[in-house]
Design goal:
This protein is mostly helical. It contains 21 helices and no strands. It is globular and about 65 Å long. The N and C termini lie close together (about 10 Å). The N terminus and C terminus are likely disordered.
Length: about 400
């Protein structure tokens, strides 16, 4: 029983130890430490009880429905679940494990493991000291609103996978086929990924021809996308266009939803992350090695900013910009502070200040306002059940 209690407590209590080895790794075990950190954070998510207005509550309800269905019956009722095919199959598997909390555990664990791996891997490619690397990690992890991830599981894991695919193609420059497969898979994780995927296709087509004329056309298409899709849907009897139109109206056109998550403070966090990412790109000294991913970030930022009033778009794709922004921010911070001019020093301390704000906001939302949704009577009930056995 004592070992069981240690097993429950160690992953969370061991998080500082994992982070210590992660930052001071001399034996190239970053993948292992990334997995341990992701597992520890996933265990915290495991004990989260979603309020009624969270998407996770709806996802739990879908798992409960699937638990009483055979696979063939579930497939026949697929359209009634409002899930893409990958989340649907994943939910079906979880429903047969008789533990609904594993739904968020695995996704959060995988998501954070990928993020920490990307940070670790890029650190190996550049010379950056421990302090500046710590700043990047804090900016990325605390700027990433954890409750949004736990609530909107499928959208955010799709964003993380998409970011990793871009990183793999443009920075690692290895196995591009894997990246192309991951791009397509994200479309089957969450329909809102059509927006960054379409931008990527446009970027690849016009990469060497991204002049004012083509950029104006892209901006016009984004501004009038709702009317273009409505026209095409009414004129052409194509189910694919109808699905895109429905997705756009559901995920992009709607406003003012999820007010609890999308507050003014959240908007500040998202906008400052985008601004800092763009500033780091502009002030980046060595751009040739990262110009591919930087170009996509800039195009995505321009088109996302056009829909600034669309809170859902802003929240979700600001995350993608932030994850990709790991690259230009690391390149900016790797320069020794003593060698930087006044402008660089100002930006450097602005990043540090934003990190402190993000951390304070994290403790306010994640700990003080939602602590009861984590370590509530459920965990104590589980422990007492184990002890009685």
């Amino acid at each position: 029983m004592f070992l069981v209690l240690i097993f429950i407590c160690i992953p969370v209590l061991g998080l500082p130890v994992y982070l210590r080895f992660y930052f001071c790794d001399k034996e190239k075990r970053g993948i292992l430490y990334s997995l341990l950190i992701g597992f520890a954070l996933g265990l915290i998510a495991y004990y989260f009880i979603p309020p009624f207005e969270y998407d996770l509550f709806r996802h739990h309800h879908a798992v409960i429905r699937l638990s009483n269905l055979t696979f063939s019956t579930a497939i026949s009722l697929y359209k009634t679940f409002e899930l893409e095919i990958i989340p649907f199959l994943y939910s079906f598997i979880i429903s047969k494990l008789n533990n609904i909390d594993l739904l968020q555990f695995f996704i959060v664990s995988i998501g954070y493991s990928i993020l920490f791996y990307m940070l670790y891997d890029y650190r190996k490619k550049i010379e950056i000291n421990d302090i500046n690397f710590l700043i990047i990690v804090l900016f990325t992890i605390f700027g990433f609103l954890a409750l949004n991830f736990i609530s909107g599981l499928y959208c955010y894991i799709a964003i993380i996978v998409f970011a990793f695919a871009l990183y793999n193609e443009y920075i690692k420059e290895k196995n591009k086929i894997l990246s192309y497969i991951l791009y397509v898979l994200t479309l089957f994780m969450h329909t809102s990924m059509f927006f960054p995927f379409a931008i990527l296709v446009v970027y690849k087509i016009f990469k060497n021809k991204l002049n004012a004329k083509n950029l104006t056309i892209c901006i016009a298409c984004v501004i009038f996308a709702e009317y273009i899709l409505l026209f095409l849907s009414s004129v052409l009897n194509v189910s694919f266009i109808d699905q895109i139109n429905t997705m756009y109206r559901h995920y992009i056109s709607r406003n003012g939803s999820m007010k609890k998550l999308y507050s003014g403070t959240v908007a500040f966090v998202e906008i400052t992350k985008i601004i800092m990412t763009i500033i780091c790109i502009v002030l980046q000294k060595e751009r040739k090695k990262t110009e591919g991913i930087n170009g996509y970030i800039i195009l995505l930022t321009i088109l996302t900013t056009l829909m600034l009033q669309k809170s859902i778009v802003m929240i979700r794709f600001a995350m993608l910009i932030q994850f990709l922004g790991i690259v230009p921010m690391a390149d900016f911070l790797k320069v020794d502070l003593k060698e930087q001019d006044k402008m660089h020093k100002l930006i450097y301390f602005s990043i540090v200040a934003l990190c402190m704000i993000y951390i304070a906001y994290f403790f306010r939302i994640f700990i003080f306002q939602n602590f009861g949704n984590f370590f509530n009577k459920k965990i104590y009930r589980d422990i007492f059940t184990i002890l009685r056995k």
